[in-house]
Write a structure and sequence with these properties.
The complex is a heterodimer of chains A (233) and B (120).
Chain A: H1 2-7, H2 11-30, H3 37-51, H4 56-67, H5 70-75, H6 78-83, H7 85-90, H8 92-117, H9 121-127, H10 134-144, H11 148-172, H12 178-200, H13 202-232
Helix pairs in contact in A: 2-3, 2-4, 8-12, 8-13, 10-11, 10-13, 11-12, 12-13
Chain B: H1 2-23, H2 30-44, H3 53-61, H4 63-66, H5 68-72, H6 78-81, H7 85-119
Classes of the chains: A mainly alpha (233), B mainly alpha (120).
Chain lengths: 233, 120
Amino acid sequence: MNELMQTSIFAGATISLLAYMFGAWLKKKFHSGLFNPLLISIAVTIVILLAAHVDYDTYNLGAKYISWFLTPATVCLAIPLYEQLTLLKKNLAAVAAGIVSGVLTSLVTVLLLALLFGLNQQEFVTFLPKSITTAIGMSVSEELGGYVNITVLVIVVTGVLGNILAEPVLKLFRIQEPIAKGLALGSSAHAIGTAKAMELGEIEGAMSSLSIAVAGILTVFGASVFSWIYSVL
Amino acid sequence: MNYLKQFSIILSISFIGEILKAVLPLPVPASIYGMAILFACLVTGIIRLEAVRDAGKFLIETMPVMFIPAGVGLMASWNVLQPMLVPVAVITVVVLVAVMAVSGRVSQAIIRHGKDKNNE
């Protein structure tokens, strides 16, 4: 099996795509935020590779062509941000305050918990971009020397949990304004949280989707500052 | 042809992002430079929205698939992840709830403050 995979440039990508379609099918069938197609496809692909005794590097010979699209796709996040520009300008104070406070809370709580657990520098920077969208978070983790695979896992699980816990948490903290709900979901649970925000309403969805890019960019700069702070602590 | 043109624009911007990353001494990923350039071009009208919209929407919609190889990489870093499982679980949940609560409360306070002022 390993030999066949080594000579094929399509095997890795094909397994990944089919596993994703399976995840999307499960999500549609059960209508639950728990069935995240990305998490399912990662798990299914790992199981297939382990069962077929194929190692990661062999799989990645073909699968790396999927990752190739990531930079251009991330560049395109400018498009939804541009489409929400009027909404952003109209609510500038609330948007700025909501996202800046969200980004700072994320960086500070990660720092405090990292100190509590006694994490080393590499482990700490792995968690720094955990609240932002996977595309930007992956690059931040890579840039700062974190474990990129673990960053991806933490980011995606954050999104899935954010999607599931959104309503109880918003209720518990009595967050009722649609704009505030959208900003809270977008800055805590990025794109997967935004899917929930869109279910809550149009304003919630728009606010959440504009938070993805803004929180991502702020975190790029904030994370490098916090990485430095942790290294001198 | 239309898609080809749109992809050309998006790839050119990604390439400029890579050049900036190589030239500038900041810890900023190439994709973020590219995103800032595309945003600036859209705002100033140098690039019209229609010139990148369809290809852009396609790339954004299919983005989750692009993370699969990185996620599958967990099978190679299981020995790193295993001792970290407790911090991973705690940090994931605690930070999520903290960010949601703070971001929501802060923006809500500002919105309501603005409303009160308008009512005066």
